[in-house]
Design brief:
By secondary structure, the protein is mostly helical. 68% of the residues lie in helices and 0% in strands.
């Protein structure tokens, strides 16, 4: 999932990321500075993500995914 494009961030991308990394909505919300309910709304499609939110999500996902890859190579 490296080099995600801004438009590649979707509700399913976020749900899949959380599942792979065993994060709850509350965990992700805390990391990003959002409320758990906002993460839930994003995932259900009732909240449309702003450009800034997409960028933040993309950055966070890439950092975690890259960290996991580095852990496996060590």
């Amino acid at each position: 999932m490296n080099n995600l494009q801004q438009n590649d961030i979707s509700a399913n991308t976020i749900k899949d990321f959380r599942a792979r990394n065993k994060l709850t909505q509350a965990d992700l919300a805390r990391e990003l500075g959002y409320s758990r309910s906002m993460i839930a709304q994003i995932e259900t499609g009732t909240h449309v993500m702003t450009k800034t939110t997409k960028k933040l999500m993309r950055y966070f996902i890439e950092e975690v995914e890259n960290g996991r890859q580095n852990d496996r190579s060590n």
